[in-house]
Amino acid sequence: MIPGNRWLSKSAVNVVLLIAAVYTLFPLIWLVSAATKDAGNLLGGDVFSLQGFDLAHNLSELTAYQDGIYFRWYGNSLLYAGAGALGCALVSVAAGYAFDKYRFRGKEKLFALVLLGVLLPSTTLSLPLYLLAVETGTVNTYWAVLIPALVNPFGVYLSRIFSAGYIPDEVLEAARIDGAGELRAFWSVGLRMVVPGFVTVFLFQFTAIWNNFFLPLVMLSDKDLYPLSLGLYNWHSNANADPSFYPMVVTGSLLAVTPLIIAFVTLQRHWKAGLTAGSVK
């Protein structure tokens, strides 16, 4: 390739990447700037100006409103997303391990049924899940959101792939020869070898539960049980009548992003290892 054309190609690629980065980061930049504004500057469109800096007041209003109900919603979201993602990762890895390492009648047909679940939008399952919750008496409780979060068909599919790539059959056979039972072989050998897959499923499910809106909307009527997504939506609906809610909604949305950033930054080492492992095997 001619040196001049090569330079032009690299420049074009860099420009495209820069535009994509700006496009991706702009909503976050807007959110950070808007969280520092009072209602007047926020509604007046002066989001990126240096006037109207009022972050401390916005945080105090967020803390004081209804005795700090925002942070109760924050705790609820951490419970739903943390416990739900952890349980889902365990269930998915165990199911993927079983589909990969064991032979039983109808295995592939059952796995095809699991894959069929990947094609179903989560909103289509909300009504059946609600009817099941009514029958079990779990409507308007933490369990109504936690129990459905434990099942993720895509997590099972992903875990089977990780199990096939990370857990050699010879290692499990050696564990059985040493006297380990099937549960011990999975817990002490298989699960530890498939940690990148476990973390990947955990991150996917944590993000999905944290951003989940429709299922809590269907299941919950008690505001004390709301997650952040539903609570902020409730405030945004009130903002149409009372504009003073807008700074609280924006500031609350900024704080709501923090756990997702922390989770990805903290666990990215395991996640990257899982994404690149197949390329060097």
From TrEMBL:
Localization annotation: Cell membrane
Record field: transmembrane: 12-32, 78-99, 111-133, 139-158, 193-213, 245-267
Q: Which PROSITE patterns match?
A: ABC_TM1
Look up the domain of life of the source. Answer: Bacteria
Q: Which Pfam family name is an example for this entry?
A: BPD_transp_1
Q: Does the keyword Cell membrane apply?
A: yes
According to UniProt, the name of this protein is: Binding protein dependent transport protein
